[in-house]
C-alpha cells in the first residue's frame, strides 16, 4: 500500500530516508552546495558591497573600467559596479524563477489531478485544451505578450512565466494519477466513505508529488535561462532593475565592438547563468535517482540499500 499524506510528510517514513540518500548522492552534494552559495550570495552579498545596484559612480572616469581591486568585476558603460549588480541580479533571477516555477507546478498539479481523477468527458476536454496550449511555442508566446507592454513589472513577468510553464507537468501528473487511482488503497478509502477531496489530498497527491519535485527542480534552471534570454532581448526585467539577463544586455547593446572591448560586463553574468542552470539540472537528475521508486533497490554507492 502506498503511503497516505501523513506518511509522506513523516520524517520516519519517506522524507528522512530520501533526504539521506540525496545528501549521499555525489552529484546532489555538488548541486546543493552551489545553489546554497548562490542563495547566500544573493541574500547577503549586496549588503557587504560599498555600492548600490543602480549607483552611477563616476560616469566620466569609471565608465567601462576593467576589473580591478576596487571593482573585481569592472564597471559598465554607466559606471555601475558589475559585481554588485551580479549579486543583485541573483536575487531577481532566482526569485523570478522560483516563484514562477512554484506557480506553474501548482497549476499543473491541480489541472492534472482533476483531469486524471475525474476522467471521462471532462478529462478529454481538458486534454484537448492542453494540446492546444502545447501547440503554441512558449518563447514566441512570451515575446508576443511582453512586447504589448512598454514595461512589464517583475510581478507580471513571474505570472507570465508561471502561467505558460505548467502544460508539461500537468500531463505527467495526470498519467501518475490515472495509475495511482487504480490501486487498492483508493478503493479501500472509498469503501470506508472517504470523500473525493480527501482521496485527492491525502492519498493521490503524495504519490504524484515526487515527479513534480523533480520537474520543478529542472524547471528552475530552464526559467532562469528563459528570463535571461527575455531580458537580453529587452522585454524581460527592464533597466535599471538588475537581473543577469539585463546585465548581459547592457554589455552587448552597443554592438560587437563594445562586447570585444568590455568583455567583463557579459562574462561574469554569463558564468553565473551557466553555473546556476547546471547546478539545478544536476540536482534535478539526482532527485530523479533518489525519488524514483524503481531506483531504490539498486545498490548505488551513495545509498544504504543492499541487494
* CATH architecture assignment name: Orthogonal Bundle
In which range does the helix fraction lie? 55-70%
Instruction: Give the amount of beta strand, in percent.
Output: under 5%
Radius of gyration from CA coordinates: 23 Å
Q: What is the oligomer described by this structure?
A: single chain
**SS-derived structural category:** mainly alpha
Label this structure with key terms.
13 helices, 69% helix, 307 residues, 0% strand, disordered N terminus, MetI-like fold, single chain, mainly alpha, elongated
Please give a structural write-up.
The chain has a single domain (5-295), classed as MetI-like (MetI-like fold). Helices cover 69% and strands 0% of the residues. It has 13 helices and no strands. It has helices spanning 5-9, 11-24, 26-44, 82-118, 120-134, 138-146, 154-163, 167-180, 184-191, 196-232, 244-252, 256-261, 264-291. The longest helix has 37 residues, at 82-118. Residues 1-13 and 295-307 have low confidence and may be disordered.
Amino acid at each position: 500500500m502506498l503511503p497516505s499524506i501523513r506518511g509522506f510528510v513523516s520524517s520516519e517514513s519517506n522524507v528522512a530516508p530520501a533526504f539521506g540518500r540525496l545528501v549521499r548522492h555525489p552529484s546532489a552534494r555538488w548541486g546543493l552546495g552551489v545553489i546554497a552559495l548562490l542563495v547566500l550570495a544573493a541574500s547577503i552579498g549586496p549588503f557587504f558591497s560599498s555600492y548600490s545596484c543602480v549607483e552611477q559612480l563616476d560616469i566620466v572616469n569609471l565608465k567601462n573600467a576593467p576589473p580591478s581591486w576596487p571593482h573585481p568585476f569592472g564597471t559598465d558603460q554607466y559606471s555601475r559596479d558589475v559585481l554588485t549588480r551580479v549579486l543583485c541580479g541573483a536575487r531577481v533571477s532566482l526569485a523570478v524563477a522560483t516563484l514562477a516555477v512554484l506557480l506553474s507546478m501548482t497549476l499543473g498539479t491541480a489541472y492534472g489531478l482533476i483531469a486524471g481523477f475525474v476522467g471521462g468527458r471532462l478529462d478529454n476536454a481538458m486534454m484537448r485544451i492542453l494540446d492546444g496550449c502545447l501547440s503554441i511555442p512558449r518563447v514566441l508566446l512570451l515575446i508576443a505578450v511582453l512586447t504589448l507592454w512598454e514595461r512589464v513589472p517583475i510581478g507580471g513577468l513571474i505570472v507570465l512565466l508561471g502561467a505558460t510553464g505548467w502544460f508539461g507537468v500537468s500531463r505527467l501528473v495526470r498519467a501518475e494519477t490515472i495509475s495511482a487511482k487504480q490501486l487498492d488503497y483508493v478503493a479501500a478509502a472509498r469503501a470506508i466513505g472517504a470523500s473525493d477531496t480527501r482521496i485527492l489530498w491525502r492519498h493521490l497527491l503524495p504519490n504524484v508529488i515526487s515527479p513534480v519535485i523533480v520537474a520543478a527542480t529542472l524547471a528552475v534552471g530552464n526559467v532562469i535561462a528563459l528570463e535571461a534570454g527575455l531580458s537580453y532581448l529587452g522585454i524581460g526585467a527592464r533597466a535599471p532593475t538588475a537581473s543577469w539577463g539585463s546585465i548581459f544586455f547592457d554589455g552587448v547593446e552597443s554592438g560587437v565592438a563594445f562586447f570585444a572591448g568590455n568583455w567583463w560586463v557579459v562574462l561574469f553574468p554569463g558564468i553565473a547563468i551557466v553555473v546556476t542552470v547546471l547546478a539545478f539540472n544536476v540536482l534535478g537528475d539526482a532527485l530523479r535517482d533518489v525519488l524514483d521508486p524503481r531506483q531504490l533497490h539498486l545498490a548505488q554507492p551513495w545509498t544504504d540499500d543492499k541487494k
